[in-house]
Design brief:
By secondary structure, the chain is mainly α. Helix content is 40%, strand content 0%. It contains 5 helices and no strands. The longest helix is centred in the middle third of the chain and has 14 residues. The protein is globular, with a radius of gyration of 13 Å.
């Protein structure tokens, strides 16, 4: 498994630090032999929807506190959310990000 751990990719993919962009694994699980489900667009958007039912995203501190429970960062509306068939873990690669940087 390849872990993309660049700050740019993590911000764009809406995950928080020490979290895989391609699986639901956190840093403590990176080397374990267990299968971790894929980190998908639908999972991220569902988690954001749950948090937004609890807390208003304009209350930045409260929103950040709640999204951290899902290992997400403070982005409430990812720019890729309406892109058909998009999977951020597939198109945010370190090579691409450094190519356009």
């Amino acid at each position: 498994m390849t872990i993309v751990n660049t700050p740019e990719a993590m911000i764009l993919d809406t995950v928080s630090g020490k979290t895989s962009l391609v699986t639901m694994a956190i840093f403590k699980q990176f080397r374990d032999p267990l299968y971790h489900e894929s980190h998908t667009k639908s999972t991220t958007l569902a988690q954001l929807a749950v948090v937004q039912t609890w807390v208003d995203p304009s209350d930045i501190e409260a929103f950040f506190c709640e999204v951290q429970k899902f290992c997400l960062n403070n982005v409430s509306k990812p720019f890729w959310q309406d892109w058909t068939l998009s999977e951020p873990s597939h198109f945010f690669t370190p090579e691409f990000l450094h190519l356009i940087h």
